[in-house]
Design a protein that fits this description.
- The protein has a four-stranded antiparallel β-sheet with strand order 4-5-1-6.
- The chain starts with a strand and ends in an 8-residue tail after the last strand.
- The relative contact order is 0.24.
- It is an alpha+beta fold and about 120 residues long.
- It is about 25% helix and about 25% strand.
- It contains three helices and eight strands.
- The longest helix is centred in the middle third of the chain and has 16 residues, at about 65-80.
Length: about 120
């Protein structure tokens, strides 16, 4: 998990919405699988890969180095865009290239099916 600070209190919703549009795209359909979520725990905020959330829930997960690098790239992008501040920037130095993820512009959101792989706060 990458600890972040929000620039303003209402930025939580901006970051959450932005993360729904960043992930891995299906090759043959207009489906985008969300890679990361924003987690608020004990007054702190984190960018977390969905596979890390499975591990936190005590479920099996194959969280890999590539998943970690993709999460780091996404956290770095959020920081570059001025949405968040990374608490420990050294944590995200090992990041994938931007080509490893799909960033969907807001105006194209309606044309795609956005698929979260994890739902925070829902019991299944």
């Amino acid at each position: 998990m990458v600890e972040i600070r929000l620039k303003a209190p209402d930025d939580f919703l901006k970051v959450r919405e932005t993360l729904t549009r960043i992930g891995v795209a299906s090759r043959n359909e207009k489906k985008l699988y969300q890679s990361c979520h924003i987690l608020h725990k004990q007054g702190k905020y984190f960018i977390v890969h969905f596979k890390e959330l499975f591990l936190l829930d005590g479920k099996h997960s194959d969280f890999s180095q590539n998943d970690c690098q993709r999460r780091n790239r996404i956290a770095k992008l959020l920081s570059d865009w001025g949405l968040v501040e990374i608490v420990e920037p050294v944590m995200i130095e090992d990041a994938s290239s931007v080509s490893q993820i799909k960033i969907l512009p807001h105006k194209e959101k309606a044309e795609w099916t956005l698929v979260p792989k994890y739902s925070i706060g829902s019991k299944k």
